[in-house]
Amino acid sequence: MERGNGTLVTEFVFLGFSSLAGLQRLLFVAFLPLYLFTLGTNAIIVSTIVLDRALHTPMYFFLAVLSCSETCYTFVIVPKMLVDLLAQKKTISFLGCAIQMFTFLFLGCSHSFLLAAMGYDRYVAICNPLRYTELMGHGVCVGLVAAACACGFTIAQIITSMVFHLPFRASNQLRHYFCDIAPVLAVASHHSRLSQLVIFMIGVFVLVVPLLLILISYIRIISAILKIPSSTGRYKAFSTCASHLIVVTVHYGCASFIYLRPKSSYSSSQDTLISVSYTILTPLFNPMIYSLRNQEFKSALRRVMGHTSYPIN
């Protein structure tokens, strides 16, 4: 196939774990149960929220969407990574690489905007509790999720189109274990400063704008919490936000390290390590942070398990 003045590569070779050739089977044994546990816990969360009417609230609606998003996100990357850990030839087709990049960008960008929507939900719940039901009706929640997905889809489409319209002639070896932006750009034969700048600015928009919205929400939340007279009331109000804050810190910390650095500081080994954290470890811990340590959710889970185990005749 021809594109411009050069021959387009038909496949890419992943080299993400090539320096750990002797440990790849061990990594497979370590990563597989973590991935299965993540799928299981997210399935439990979504099923419990759907089946227990007490959890049919905006906060748990967003949590169910977040769990579905993380399940899809890991499904795009981890199964292929696990197969490659056992395979001699670790390749992906050119089209497959483009689809993988588009899908994980779509889900990752949507995730960022969804976290901002969850921050707004916590702001309304604490700062306007009497109007919470009115302001966060089902239509509003669905609209916020749809807006997050629309932003994610548009951004993923723009970046993927820009990256895969570049000529690829010199090399097809990606120093990573999936088709992330920086490793693919690194093997492109030519890309202009303008394309680099546009991709960087889109990354800034995706990460900084939602983060600013979250910070504004929490400034107002903290101000409202400090006005609560009792320490018990302040603790209860803050505890509803603590899980969201932890997830926001981890998500934006990892994403900023990967996508908001100048190209000169790109390190394949560092990026591989950070990427493992947000494709394997973060989706593993998020369900536990959000739900499995939440007393309300655990009570709902017991009710659902009770109805399942002892159905009413």
From TrEMBL:
GO MF: G protein-coupled receptor activity; olfactory receptor activity
Domain named G-protein coupled receptors family 1 profile: residues: 41-290
Subcellular location per the Swiss-Prot or TrEMBL entry: Cell membrane
Bilayer topology term: Multi-pass membrane protein
Top-level taxonomic group: Eukaryota
Pfam families noted in UniProt: 7tm_4 (PF13853)
Transmembrane segments: 26-51, 58-78, 98-120, 140-164, 197-216, 237-260, 272-292
Stated name of the protein: Olfactory receptor 10K1-like
